[in-house]
Amino acid sequence: MNFYQINELAIQFRLDLGINHFNPIDFFPLITHKIKNLTIVFLDMANDVSGACYKFDSQKIMFINSNHSKGRQTFTAAHEIYHLFYDDNPFTICNINSNEKIEKDADYFASSLLIPTNALYNYKKENDIRNWDLNSIIDCDQYFQISHEALLFRLKSSGDI
Q1: Which helix (H) or strand (E) is 17 found in, with range?
Q2: Beta carbons of 114 and 13 less than 8 angstroms apart
């Protein structure tokens, strides 16, 4: 899949959950209430592992590294959603710096799910951002409740930086 197709999956996933694509979301409460048979487990993992997931029958289990920041955990959860719904593998361990295509696809999905193009456009317009600087990036991190690295990934993938 290309970035456009993955972006469309993320938009459709938000719509399926009843969420518009203009606003930030409080991700963990949302997915625990909207996704049936989802269990989220926070575990003490090695720093280079962000998370993992396992699916069988209708059950979905997501493992999140409890040592990472809340913003990083949110991005990891969105990343694991991709594996749970769009990856054929029943069990996946996600290392932070993996270059595998499926991991890059899951990163694109997570960034599009958490910061849809329309939401990013609205944020830039409302905050009169013409060029991203450190302060505007940090403010945006906080607004969308994601990690600094996740926002940079999104801004790079959208061509904003």
Answers
A1: none
A2: no
